[in-house]
Amino acid sequence: MARSSNKRQPSVLNWMGSLILYAIPGVNLIFLILSAIFAKSTSKRSFAIAGILLIVISALLTFIAFMIFPDFFTRLAEYMRQPRPVRVTEVLPPA
Prior knowledge:
The protein is mainly alpha-helical. It has helices spanning 12-23, 27-38, 42-68, 70-81. It is built from 4 helices and no strands. Helix 1 (12-23) packs across helix 2 and helix 2 (27-38) crosses helix 3. The longest helix has 27 residues, at 42-68. The termini are far apart.
């Protein structure tokens, strides 16, 4: 028996707008939460829930990495703060 659905499928432009909002830092989490709650299509709702889970898992793994390897990240931060000489190479031959 075929499943009948009265809901319209999201268009390509609708998905493109969603992906653009998902790519903006800070806006993406708000957009995903609102989409998970208010989306009319199940595909948009599932996408939003998967995005939220991905953000939560990434944040947890990052937190765990900072707790397990604090010395590594401290040394990395100190290395990045050190000034390094900038080498300027001349592109054009001398006149």
